[in-house]
Structure formats: C-alpha cells, structure tokens
Amino acid sequence: MAAIGAALERTPLGRRVSGVMIVIALAMLLANLGVIPRAAPVYDVIWTYLVPLAIALFLLRADLVSMLVEGGRTLLAFAAGALGVVLGAWLGARVLDLGIYEAQYAAVFSATYTGGSLNYAAVAEAIGFRDPSALAAGVAIDNVVGLGYLLVVGAVANAALFRRHFAWRSEGLGEATGASAAAPRTPSLIDLAIALGLAALACATGDALAAAIGQPSYGILFITVIMVAIATLGRRWLRGLAGEDLVATLFMYLFFAMLGAGADLGTLLDAAPALFAYVLLVFLVHVAFVLLAGRLFRLNHAELVIASTACIGGPPIAVAFAVLFGWRRLAVPAVATGILGYVVGNFVGLGLFNWLAP
Question: InterPro entries from the entry (predicted)?
C-alpha cells in the first residue's frame, strides 16, 4: 500500500489528493473487503516503534545553529504563524463542539500546523489518541482543507496587491545559495545503518528518561531534545548522510495505512463538519498573525508565504514554493523554519492538550 501510494503520488491526480490519502483510502477499502484486519499486533508495532523512529530520523536535520542563522527574517513570520495556530486551535476548541476528543484534536492539529503531518502522529502517540476513525477523520480534513489553503496561498503569492503591500526588501529573491544548489547524494547502506542506529538510540534513551520521571507518554519530548542535540553537535558529520528521510517517510506511510485499516467510515463522516469548521478557524487566525508580523517587522510577501507554508505543510512544501516562484534566496530559510516546526510542534501539541484536557 505504501508503494502504491508513493507511486500514484507522482501522477497528476495523485499530486492533487496526496499519497497519504491514497494509502488511507486503499487501506479502508481492503479492510472493509476483509483482505486486511482492522486490528492486529503489527499495528501496535507501528505505533510503538516505527512512529518514534520516523520522528527521530526526520530530526537528524534539526541543527539549531543552522536553523537560527539561516532562517533569518523568515523565522519572525514563522513564530507569528505558529502562535496564530496555537491561539486558533484553542479558540476553536472553545467555540466549537468537537465531541469527546476536543483536547486531542486541538493537540494534533496545533502540532501538525506548526511543522507538518509528522507532528500529527507524534502527538497522537504521546497523548494516547489511538482511535483510528477519529484520527483518520482528522487526516482527511487536514488533507482537504490543507490542500485548499496551499492552493489559495499559491494563487495569491505573486498577486500584485499582495506584493505591493509587503514589498520591503523583496529585491534579490532569485539569488541562488550554495546550500540550496547542492545535489542530493544517493544513500548507502552505511548511511541508513548510522541514521537508524542514532534514531533507535535516541528513542530508547528518551523512553527510558520519560519512564524514570514517571511520565512514560512524554517519551517523544525527550526523543526530540536528544535528536536536536545530536543534530546540532554533529552537524558537520551528519551533513554527509543521505536517505534517512526515505526511511522515515516509509514508516509514516505505514502509520497512515494502519489508520485507514482501523477507520470506521460512519464515524469519519460524522466528525467531518465540525472538524472542517475547526481547521478553517485555525487557518484564519494563523493568516491574521502572519500578516500582522509582516506589518510589524516589515517582512516581504515571499517571506510571509514561505513561513506560512512551512507552518502548515512542513519543509517539503515550503521549499517547493520557494522553487516554484523562483525565490532561491529563501530555499534554505524554508528548510530551516520547516525543521524548526518539527522540533517545536510536539511541545505545542502536548502543551495545548494539557491546557484543554479536563
């Protein structure tokens, strides 16, 4: 299923609906036909081991020095956008009826819109949010509304009115940077072994530390801190590794396949209207804060677009927008702010959950 989803994502239709949604839909279909089970011991293995490993692997690039130095002015807009997500998620949980999973939805959506869908799985695991139907409903809404948001951002990114109101320091956006021009290297067996070894070490240590203080569900926070420390202290050495993102992506595809297999279609449809309104509200507050930051700190239209897409979609989407519009100078800040979102998103989600949980 992961292979099929990844392959179809290369097609025009697949790019519109995303490989994740293809995997979830295929898993739901096969589960309803009785080809795969709705629950199985291997699903627990995915939750317990593969999801934390995927998070740790993605964080191998979370070098704090590079993120702060290379993120530049874009980090200001990113911080404002992340704050808008948190306030929007809190406000939505207060004014909308999200049912018994109100705090859980606020946690996973605030996390995923602070750095991408990786944080969705991480925070769901940390707070024990394991209802497949409820999680699949959230992923479906995230994909539909999130894709719509990115399409709108893409449409207005170079609009004359938007550029005119946020035109400060917008000259030279097309200048290339050395980091963005580097060609990716083909991964080797040694690369994958080192990456998996470091990730596994961080996961084992993080879980042990969380258990030692009596908070075993918070292992993901310790894992995040450990991986950031490894990525920062070993940034020159780790820069030569390749392929860890492929392994992490495969693990995440398996996670979404597991969600689809256990999802109940009726529950998913029942949750859709409230979640749709909830995500729209989060986006509205997010945009308001990003635009306010643009005015206060005199940021240009490209910096605001990259910061917003880094929040909502993560590094791949932000970099894609930088390349699409020829903003070569912002390719590295796009990666830096997106990876920073991976780091802080878990803390944001858990913090909001503890704030809202009864």
Answer: DUF819
